[in-house]
Amino acid sequence: MAESTRVSPEELERREKYLRAGLREVNLMDPFTWSYPMKGAGVMVGASLVSAHLYNMWNKRPFYFAIVPRLIAIGVMGAIGYGMGSLREHHYKTRDAVIQHYIELHPKDFDHFNDTTKMLDEAASSESSDAIARKKELLMQRLQQRRPAKQSKSGTDQAKLREEELTEVLNRAREQAESGVVDEETVKTLESFLSLEGCGWSAKRIQSALELLRKAGVGANSEGPQKSTFSFSISKKRNNSGSSGGTPKTTPAVPSESTSFIQKVSSDNAISLADLTGETRVVTGKDGNDVKLKEIRNCRLSFTFRPSTVHIQIFATAQQLRIHTSNELRLHVGVRAAVIIESCTNIRMAPYRVLFNNEPIEAPPGDAWKRPNDFDWLAEGQSPNWTVAPEEEWETAVVNSSSQ
């Protein structure tokens, strides 16, 4: 059995002197043995010399450049460091003196430090039931502190799961676009994701996927004339109402059957489309041709060329309306939530006013149509990309439908 080695009183005194500031032996080659004033002065002088050397290197100056002012500055910095070290040493000496004085005044309070048996007894008695209960309480507090972290982690996991689901839907949409077989459920899922995303990188990905699906599904739902006729007119005629570079789309409130498809090229190189309902069509032409749309309802049109101008007026009522990449467009809309525009210019807003079989269609309450949200305008104040049309320019669409 190993025996403990007792340290001699001389060794204890030597160690005590070494630990106390100002009593250890000084070795100039060992900065750890320096006193606090010497350490402070050495650090400040060293930092000053290094900064002076770096200044000379940066400005390409010789080492003796402004040597006298620099030596004075280095001396001042050394004196400041020496004073800081002296304050630190004085603090330690004062603390040691106070402790020693207290021990001399109350020696009985420190007798147990010299009695090893008492120290062991106290250590054994500390492991009582109260100590165990205290440890359990601390453990419960730590567990309570970890719960918010776990909840935040669960929120991160939900966002990650939603991102994985979106990626899966985008991959499925890409496969359907390549195969040419488009599933309506995929389109609805992407549109629901788009309504939640708003704008950003994810919204751009969803819009690109929807565009691929629309191109793949063009022409798949083309049908002949049905059993009803449909006419659409505007009480106040205008020649040029607006233009849109993107895919034009109109959405009136009352559904109707599809009618005949008319595409003709006028003498002014303008392609006219009229009397379309519930159609998905591909429009062919030459780059630079104008496109005139009239009496278009609930249709999706794709252009294989780059039109110069698309003349279109939109009458639509919806919960939320989104317009992308359009220029000089006139919107007669009624919405409950908001009108959202992105990458648009010269948009003119007007209220939704439609007569169906000589009866007015009720528009959603409120004036949300007057305050569209421009995703390209993040500053305060109104966006310059849209304005509210004067009241004398507000028009009423007249819709007539009769069964044959």
Automatic annotation (TrEMBL):
Alphabetical list of PROSITE patterns matching this protein: C_CAP_COFACTOR_C (PS51329)
Family membership noted in the UniProt record: Belongs to the TBCC family.
UniProt keyword Nucleus, yes or no: no
Biased amino acid composition, Polar residues: 223-234
Keywords, ordered alphabetically: Membrane, Transmembrane, Transmembrane helix
Any one Gene Ontology BP term: post-chaperonin tubulin folding pathway
Highest taxon listed in the record's lineage: Eukaryota
Domain C-CAP/cofactor C-like: 248-377
The protein's name in its UniProt record: C-CAP/cofactor C-like domain-containing protein
Family matches, as PANTHER family: TUBULIN FOLDING COFACTOR C (PTHR15139), TUBULIN-SPECIFIC CHAPERONE C (PTHR15139:SF0)
Pfam families registered for this protein in UniProt: NDUF_C2, TBCC
TM spans (from-to): 36-56, 63-85
Species, as recorded: Ancylostoma ceylanicum
Region (Disordered), start-end ranges: 219-259
Gene3D superfamilies reported in the protein's UniProt record: 2.160.20.70
Cellular component annotations (GO), alphabetically ordered: mitochondrial inner membrane
Keyword Transmembrane: yes
